[in-house]
Specification:
Ubiquitin-like (UB roll), Vancomycin_resist_VanW, four-stranded antiparallel β-sheet, Glycopeptide_resist_protein, transmembrane helix, Vanomycin resistance protein VanB, 38 strands, disordered N terminus, alpha+beta, YoaR-like_PG-bd
């Protein structure tokens, strides 16, 4: 580039200075000697050269600045491409718009199924099904933040890989389908007890796809358009077979080799090997790491009543009807073993062959139901009452069973929101609990069975809660209709398969009060009355069937019966509040015709 100096005015006889070339930074070349000039001309000549150099510098800087402005224009460095699309020199917004346009042009290509191979199996996966997409905003941000040398911005070019996202759970689910039977689930290590004998299950690795690695491989293959091979990866449990054997030898077997003595301030009790085996657990976490622990609840259950030697159970406050009013009797606190450190203490001594003694502190335990709480439950009036009659007097086995279960349930308080289970309350009703043999229905006929007659109490209790408006949770009417019960609104019970349950769906406590005479059983519900009335409306009986006659082998176990009609009927529980019907609940049951059983040989 050549520059020329200023032309002097006509009256100025200063020589014209010619500059052949300029470089930046300017390099001064030695000038040839010139004739000496007068002092005035020498000063003017020096000033002219300074002004000229300054002008040249300004021009060059302006040129460089213009180039820099061009090179650094926009958010994305010039020369930057993504998927073959030039995004350089653009703002992020424009770059995103251009990239989306390019993706739209390649939509057919990017939506084409990906061929995936796992082991011996090959399948195609649709990108849309697994959420494969180019994250435009993240890609543009990556392109804008990429470092570029100054000269690269002027003359270079850079290809930025797009940021691809995928729904990893969906992709993994699709890949697992392809794995099929080639895969293998991880077998977790386990140590259990059969009696007091330790049994082991050794670990085995899983063979499956690795979610994160598979996602990376599939994302790369999607953009390249090439088939993808996803490897099957072995994943071994954290506890090896050798470590399982070590746990058996060092803990499981020594643990049940001898009892452990538990001492407290109230005395001591031996924990036998059988109870230790029940409580000692080896749990594997998701990674397959096997860790020993003591399940104190299982251990305590295995000890049974033997803990009574060192513990005092708390006693709830009770309520009974006295003089026609509910009366509260205060309960008492108890003492129980503080089990918070019991598991760790046991684990410390179980590997030992001697010195197998641990100590525990007793802590006070308050009753679940105190007199104060019981008195605040709103149990103040009789809400409902129901009576059924029986024959034979109190001397018959059936009557005694009815009285036994009534005494067990008498005084039970059901808290608001709680569900009462008759089987759960009484437990098994056997000879040890004072029950006797009496007729029960078994396989469609009456036979002697322990606890016969308890169904009559169940029906009486069901009707009491029914007319109190409480929620029926579980009940089952008898197979045959007995005239001593109200049709449909009745219930049987049998341990352990048939239960009777109801829920206290009120804001008040519910007290079950029972009483009996020589020929009747009565159940009353005490609480706070919330309904005006609860009544039953019946539909006519339908689908009536007649009994057949069945001859049975005569003998002590044969119980004759007169038979009864079978029929279907509906019962509607109608509940009123403030003079209006607020609930109308339908109960329906179909009774079979009870055969007429005759204890004799069938006539020929």
């Amino acid at each position: 580039m050549t520059l020329y100096g200023e032309k002097r005015p006509p009256a100025d006889d200063r020589p014209t200075v010619q500059v052949a070339a300029v470089s930046w930074p300017p390099v001064e070349e030695p000038a040839p000697p010139a004739p000496a000039a007068p002092d005035g001309e020498r000063k003017r000549s020096s000033r002219f050269r300074i002004l000229l150099a300054t002008g040249v510098a300004t021009t060059v800087l302006a040129s460089v600045g213009a180039v820099a402005v061009w090179a650094y224009a926009g958010d994305v460095p010039r020369g930057t491409t993504v998927l073959g699309t030039e995004l350089g020199g653009r703002s992020k917004t424009d770059a995103a718009r251009e990239l989306r346009a390019q993706l739209d042009r390649r939509a057919a290509e990017l939506s084409a199924p990906i061929q995936v191979r796992i082991g011996e199996r090959t399948a195609e996966i649709n990108p849309a099904d697994v959420g494969l997409t180019v994250d435009v905003d993240a890609t543009v941000a990556a392109a804008a933040s990429a470092n570029a040398h100054a000269m690269d911005r002027l003359i270079g070019s850079r290809e930025v890989e797009p940021v691809v996202s995928v729904d990893v759970p969906k992709l993994t689910a699709e890949l697992k389908k392809l794995v099929g039977k080639q895969g293998q689930k991880m077998t977790m290590p386990a140590i259990t007890f059969s009696g007091t004998k330790a049994k082991v299950r050794y670990p085995k690795p899983s063979l499956d796809v690795d979610a994160e690695h598979s996602a990376k491989v599939v994302k790369e293959g999607w953009l390249s358009g090439q088939p993808v091979t996803v490897p099957l990866v072995e994943n071994h449990p954290a506890t090896s077979a050798e470590e399982v054997d070590r746990l058996v030898a060092e803990l499981a077997e020594p643990a049940v080799a001898a009892p452990v003595k538990l001492t407290t301030d109230r005395g001591s009790v031996n924990i036998p090997p059988q109870a230790i085996a029940k409580g000692l657990r080896f749990k594997a976490d998701k990674a397959g790491k096997l860790t020993p622990s003591v399940d104190v609840k299982r251990l305590w259950a295995a000890l049974g009543n033997s803990v009574d030697a060192i513990e005092v159970a708390p006693k709830d406050a009770t309520m009974a009807i006295s003089g026609g009013k509910p009366k509260v009797t205060e309960g008492r606190a108890g003492q129980q073993v503080d089990t918070s450190k019991l598991g760790d203490s046991l684990l410390d001594v179980l590997p030992r062959s001697t010195d197998r003694t641990i100590s525990a502190e007793l802590k006070p335990v308050q009753p679940k139901l105190t007199a104060e709480k019981l008195g605040s439950l709103g149990i103040k009036e009789k809400v409902s009452s129901f009576t059924t009659n029986f024959t034979g007097g109190l001397g018959s086995a059936r009557s005694q069973n009815i009285v036994t279960i009534a005494k067990d349930v008498d005084g039970t308080v059901v808290l608001p929101g709680e569900t009462f289970s008759l089987n759960g309350h009484t437990g098994e009703r056997g000879y040890a609990q004072g029950y006797r043999d009496a007729p029960v229905i078994l396989d469609g006929k009456l036979v002697p069975g322990v606890g016969g007659g308890t169904s009559q109490f169940t029906t009486t209790l069901f009707n009491a809660i029914y007319y109190a408006g409480l929620e029926d949770v579980e009940h089952k009417p008898h197979s045959y209709y007995f005239s001593r019960y109200p049709a449909v609104v009745e219930s049987t019970i049998f341990w352990p398969n048939l239960d009777f349950k109801f829920r206290n769906n009120t804001d008040y406590g519910v007290l079950i009060d029972t009483s009996y005479t020589g020929n009747s059983i009565t159940v009353s519900i005490w609480s706070t009355k919330i309904w005006d009335s609860v009544k039953t409306e019946y539909s006519p009986r339908r689908n009536i069937t007649s009994p057949r006659t069945v001859y049975l082998e005569p003998g002590p176990s044969c119980i004759p019966a007169n038979g009864s009609l079978g029929f279907t009927q509906d019962a509607f529980r109608v509940i009123k509040k403030d003079g209006k019907v607020v609930k109308r609940e339908k109960f329906t049951w179909t009774y079979q015709a009870e055969p007429r059983f005759i204890c004799a040989k069938q006539p020929s």
